[in-house]
Amino acid sequence: MSNTKYEITDLAHEKYPFLYRIRALRDIGSEVKAGDLGGFVECESNLSFETGDNAWIFDDAIAAGEGCVDKGSVLRERAIVCGCAYASHGTEMSGDSRAEDDAYIRGGRLSRCARVSGNGMVLQSPTTKAAPILTGSCSVYGKVIGDVTLTGTAVVISGEEILNESLDTLIIDDRGRTIIRAPSRDELAPCQPQEKQKKPKNKGRDR
Fold this sequence. Notes:
globular; mainly beta; 23 strands; nine-stranded mixed β-sheet
């Protein structure tokens, strides 16, 4: 399949001369117009050019090595996907965040200096559709799934799995683990329309 989405220019990266800027050949989503310059890649396999895929690399972000960005994912600012890392299904990376080694990110949001390394996985929940948020200087070597926010210097080690498919948000930071509940969670509501509810019988009432 020919690449009609972008071209790799001869504008080399100042520090890594084997990386080159991309230029859009057509409009991509709502942000990228034909002719716009993007971030840096090493080769075409770093960024999907499949029809209908709006994945893009902005600013000075990088996809290198055998790293791949696809399925609507975006890299911004100085984010990096390298090694054999894979950013897919609407993943958003910004700041100095990094996915390296054999990391797999599916729908997550990484910012600041967050890092996913080794065989680390950051995955959207298949049931609630909530995706993890990584920020600060946190590191993931294990697996994080669902409505989880990692911040500060929190670390998920190899073999550890953090799974949250509840309606609450799990926060993991330097001080430990906390839960954020939506106010609506503490309110009660009828499970059926009121007109269909059975009225309680008045047992023991005088006739």
